[in-house]
Specification:
Blueprint: H1 2-36, H2 65-89, H3 91-119, H4 132-142, H5 148-156
Helix pairs in contact: 2-3
């Protein structure tokens, strides 16, 4: 039993030393910060630091779902780059079979990207309605006193 323990210690002593060194380093840094850190308290010290700008508003504001959708799309296509990097490293070993597999992978992701673009997942601005300009022009035409130049400007918008 002691031979097994000795062999295990001989195998993992470096890992144990590394963990002990990390814990000691963290303790040293926290201790040094508490001893050397500033002790002043005040109204400006208790405010969160936001790149030199005083915070305004609540941190609990609502965001559009589009932000999260774009973030998910970014993660998907970022992971694609990780897989393609692995393929690029071993391109000579995998040969034409690996090339075809990578091409199929890229075409599937390209089809997903085209689908996302057609559905409107990549559109940031709201869609314009086609009849808004025509209805606005009819409203301006019905208003007496609006000259033709203003009507033309509204039509070109």
């Amino acid at each position: 039993m002691s031979d097994q323990v000795s062999a295990w210690i001989a195998s993992y002593w470096a890992t144990g030393l590394f963990v002990v060194a990390i814990v000691a380093l963290c303790g040293l840094m926290i201790g040094a910060a508490s001893l050397l850190g500033g002790r002043s308290h005040g109204r400006s010290k208790s405010l969160p630091f936001e790149s030199g700008i005083v915070g305004a508003g609540s941190a609990r504001q609502r965001f559009s779902v589009k932000f999260y959708l774009v973030a998910m799309l970014f993660v998907i296509f970022d992971i694609e780059a990780v897989y393609l990097f692995g393929w690029a490293v071993s391109v000579r070993e995998v040969g034409w079979t690996g090339f075809v597999a990578a091409a199929v992978f890229i075409f599937i992701l390209l089809a997903g990207l085209i689908y996302d673009a057609r559905v409107g997942a990549l559109d940031w601005a709201p869609r314009k309605r086609g009849n808004e300009n025509a209805s606005r022009a009819r409203e301006l035409a019905a208003v007496p006193g609006v000259d033709r130049q203003v009507r033309r400007e509204e039509k070109t918008r």
